[in-house]
Design goal:
alpha/beta; two-stranded antiparallel ribbon; 7 strands; about 25% helix; about 25% strand; globular; disordered C terminus
């Protein structure tokens, strides 16, 4: 079935992952524009483990923010927990300030189905009620299952369902394009 896309989207068939530096620069510029557009001068950054935390550190430094970043491990908030089980390395979440009334930037590496973001929002609201939450991602790709969109992003990409982008890091950060293979009947 053909996919209708906004005319502003450029379609590129990926044979390898995009370079990270231009994406990081575009993400910082997009975040700055979003903050200026909404007159937010003191945002608090919350990264989703692991890639979102790495990006939150980068954004915090690039934006010159003084407050420490928050870190979320959404393992217990996932809606597929009973189906896929617990990730072997669950980390504690850490938000070192009161979220009540704060403007939050929720940071993740790749926005795909929206389910990770839904889980992160559930956890954030367990800490309190922020004034606003803006989602910032390195890459927003097709395949949404929930009505969630990024307010700031480094790039929008269209990938076939068999491909995934994986952020590797923390130093240096780089993206890998991963091809998922389907299992045969005997596998």
């Amino acid at each position: 079935m053909p996919m209708l896309l906004p005319s502003s989207w450029r379609i590129t068939l990926l044979t390898s992952a995009p370079a990270i530096e231009p994406l990081l620069e575009a993400l910082v510029a997009s975040v700055r524009a979003r903050l200026a557009e909404h007159n937010i001068v003191d945002p608090r950054l919350v990264g989703i483990h692991s890639g979102g935390v790495w990006l939150a550190r980068h954004l915090s430094q690039s934006l010159g923010l003084a407050e420490p970043i928050g870190e979320l491990d959404i393992s217990f908030y996932r809606d597929d927990f009973t189906r896929v089980g617990m990730h072997p390395t669950v980390r504690p979440s850490r938000i070192p300030w009161d979220v009540e009334g704060k403007h939050l930037l929720l940071i993740d590496d790749v926005l795909y189905t929206g389910r990770t973001i839904r889980a992160a929002l559930n956890e954030i609201f367990d800490y309190g009620r922020p004034a606003s939450v803006t989602l910032a991602v390195l890459v927003s790709r097709n395949g949404r299952e929930l009505p969630i969109e990024a307010g700031a992003f480094g790039a929008r990409l269209i990938l076939p369902p068999s491909q995934q982008l994986k952020l590797r890091g923390p130093a240096p950060l780089h993206l890998d394009l991963v091809e998922r293979t389907s299992r045969g009947a005997g596998s």
